[in-house]
Every structure is written in structure tokens, then in C-alpha cells.
């Protein structure tokens, strides 16, 4: 199976990024985690993106806040799918700065962008991409979706029982 790359711009992003890591672990998907900054360690970020495909990766998750150039700069150097996670690292705009920086890519260099701090969805999307050619993984995704649905139905039952006459 192809690996998922989990890249974050700063170790300060890790508490949110760990949610993506835990999700990938739940699916038994192989992954690597790295801290590469588009601004502070551009050479390392560039080398990683240039060699990601030949190194066995199938998808790249890129989490960054503020100017949030990481996902776009990695996407510029690879044709692997890149999923951007805008991070709410600045109290100034609640992550809107990172959301716009991540999502507003020029035509030709796509970044699939999830919600601010949307690490779980980023991981799920990467699993869905790998599951296109992996039936066993597709079955696990269907089971996860069913379990999530059951949780909501249970919650609904609890609320209805408590408040409805
Ligand atoms: C971004 O700037 C990082 O991805 C992080 O979200 C934000 C702040 O980084 P630190 O100053 O906490 O290292 O590059």
C-alpha cells in the first residue's frame, strides 16, 4: 500500500495534526510524519516533495497556519494529491488567513483543502484516495461511516427521550 505523508509547518501544529495521525492508525494505513516549513526549512520541504512519489507515497497531508504556504509549495513540486489543513494558529483571524492561503491556489496546481483544523477529514480523504484501488480499505471506510452514523442515531435517541413528550 502507498504511504501517506503527514507534513506540518511547525511542531506547534502537532496537537491538531495528531488527530490525522490517529485516524490513519485506525485504518492501518502506513504513514510518515515530518516537520518541514515552507519558510524555515524550504530545502527539506522541496526535497521531500520532489522525491515523494519514488519514495512510495500516494498522498501528502500538509498542515500549516498563518501565511500557510506549505501545501501549495509542496503541490508545486509533485503531482501526488496534496491535502491542505489550514491551522488556526493565529488568534488574529481564527484560521481564516490559513484557509484562504491554502485554498486559493492558481489553476494547474490543486490543493484539496479541508476545514480549519480539519485533520480528521484530511486523513479520511487520504484513505478514500488510497481506497480507490484497495477494496479492503474501502470496506474499512464503509464500516467507519456506519459506526459514525450509529453514534448520531444513538445521540438522537437520547435527546428525543430526554425532551420529547
Ligand atoms: C506556520 O506558522 C506553522 O504551520 C504554524 O501553524 C504557524 C506558527 O508557527 P510557530 O511560530 O508556532 O512555529 O508556519
Describe the structure.
With 165 residues, the protein is an alpha/beta fold. The protein is built from six helices and five strands. Strands 2-1-3-4-5 form a five-stranded parallel sheet. Helix 3 links the parallel strand 3 and strand 4. Helix 1 runs parallel beside helix 5 and helix 5 packs across helix 6. The model has no long low-confidence stretch (mean pLDDT 97). 5-O-phosphono-beta-D-ribofuranose binds next to strand 3.
Defining traits:
five-stranded parallel sheet, globular, binds 5-O-phosphono-beta-D-ribofuranose
List the helices and strands and how they pair.
Elements: E1 3-8, H1 14-27, E2 31-35, H2 42-51, E3 57-65, H3 70-75, E4 82-87, H4 96-103, E5 112-113, H5 119-131, H6 135-163
Parallel strand pairs: 1-2, 1-3, 3-4, 4-5
Helix pairs in contact: 1-5, 5-6
The site of 5-O-phosphono-beta-D-ribofuranose has 10 residues, from β3.
What's a quick, concise take on this entry?
The mean pLDDT is 97. With 165 residues, the protein is of the alpha/beta class. α1 (14-27) packs parallel to α5 (119-131) and α5 packs across α6 (135-163).
Strand content: 15-25%
Roughly what is the average pLDDT, rounded to an integer?
97
Fraction of residues in H or I helices: 40-55%
**Biggest pleated sheet:** 5 strands, parallel
The end-to-end span amounts to: 52 Å
| Strand line-up of the largest beta sheet | 2-1-3-4-5
The helix/strand class is alpha/beta
Order of helices and strands: EHEHEHEHEHH
- What is the count of helical runs? 6
Shape: globular
Q: What small-molecule ligands were found?
A: 5-O-phosphono-beta-D-ribofuranose
Oligomer: single chain
- Strand tally is 5
The parts where pLDDT drops under 50 for at least 5 residues are none
Taking all Cα atoms into account, the compactness measure Rg is: 17 Å
Amino acid at each position: 500500500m502507498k504511504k501517506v505523508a503527514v507534513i506540518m509547518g511547525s511542531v506547534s501544529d502537532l496537537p491538531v495534526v495528531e488527530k490525522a495521525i490517529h485516524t490513519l492508525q485506525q485504518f492501518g494505513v502506513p504513514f510518515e510524519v515530518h516537520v518541514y516549513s515552507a519558510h524555515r526549512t524550504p530545502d527539506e520541504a522541496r526535497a521531500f516533495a520532489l522525491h515523494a512519489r519514488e519514495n512510495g507515497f500516494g498522498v501528502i497531508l500538509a498542515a500549516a497556519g498563518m501565511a500557510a504556504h506549505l501545501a501549495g509549495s509542496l503541490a508545486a513540486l509533485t503531482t501526488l494529491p496534496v491535502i491542505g489543513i489550514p491551522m488556526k494558529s493565529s488568534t488574529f483571524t481564527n484560521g481564516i488567513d490559513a484557509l484562504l492561503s491554502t485554498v486559493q491556489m492558481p489553476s494547474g496546481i490543486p490543493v484539496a483543502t479541508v476545514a480549519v483544523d480539519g485533520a480528521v477529514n484530511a486523513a479520511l480523504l487520504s484513505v478514500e484516495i488510497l481506497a480507490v484501488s484497495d477494496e479492503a480499505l474501502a470496506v474499512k471506510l464503509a464500516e467507519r461511516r456506519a459506526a459514525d452514523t450509529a453514534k448520531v442515531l444513538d445521540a438522537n435517541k437520547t435527546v428525543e427521550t430526554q425532551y420529547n413528550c
